[in-house]
Task: inverse folding
């Protein structure tokens, strides 16, 4: 909790929208849709301004923020809207932040609920060709001694379904993180 998941997702979104590196990885400039379920509109705008200034970015026109904080929405009903919007605006990357807000009325501890969510995300990917990225949180307590794919809160479906998992663990050095990658299809 409160480790900076939204910050890093915004950093990723701006990197792809502008074609600058993310965590030293090259990106290709593409249109990005950031679906914000949690942060107030003015705070998202402030965070984007900070990232834009610190990274010396001049044009974020390839990045769209869809603010849904305070709007209880059934994700199943949002999926067709997301698909339609992505097709219309030709987004290549969709960021869902945070993923637990897409589970209103469902339990992240139940395999069937998480499986349904993952199938809905897969539907977006298959019908649009866009990549979908989301942040998820660890279970409470120190998870450093657990296997990286066992650290996530809730159902193990989160770990089993994802093609790529990037895990950030706080480092001993302040403001630093260790990064681990769990990859389905890449060496």
Result:
């Amino acid at each position: 909790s409160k480790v900076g998941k939204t910050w890093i997702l915004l950093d990723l979104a701006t990197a792809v929208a502008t074609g600058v590196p993310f965590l030293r990885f090259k990106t290709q400039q593409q249109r990005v849709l950031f679906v914000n379920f949690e942060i107030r509109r003015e705070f998202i705008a402030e965070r984007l301004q900070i990232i834009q200034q610190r990274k010396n970015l001049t044009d974020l026109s390839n990045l769209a923020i869809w603010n849904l904080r305070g709007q209880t929405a059934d994700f199943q009903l949002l999926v067709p809207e997301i698909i339609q919007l992505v097709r219309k605006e030709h987004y290549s990357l969709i960021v869902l932040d945070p993923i637990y807000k897409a589970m209103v009325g469902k339990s992240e501890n139940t395999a069937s609920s998480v499986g349904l969510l993952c199938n809905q995300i897969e539907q977006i990917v298959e019908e649009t060709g866009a990549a979908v990225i989301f942040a998820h949180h660890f279970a409470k307590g120190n998870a450093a001694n657990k296997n990286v794919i066992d650290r996530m809160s809730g159902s193990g479906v989160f770990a089993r379904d994802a093609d790529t998992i990037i895990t950030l663990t706080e480092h001993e050095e302040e403001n630093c993180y260790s990064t681990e990658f769990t990859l389905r299809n890449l060496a």
Notes: Residues 111-128 form the longest helix (18 residues). The mean pLDDT is 87.
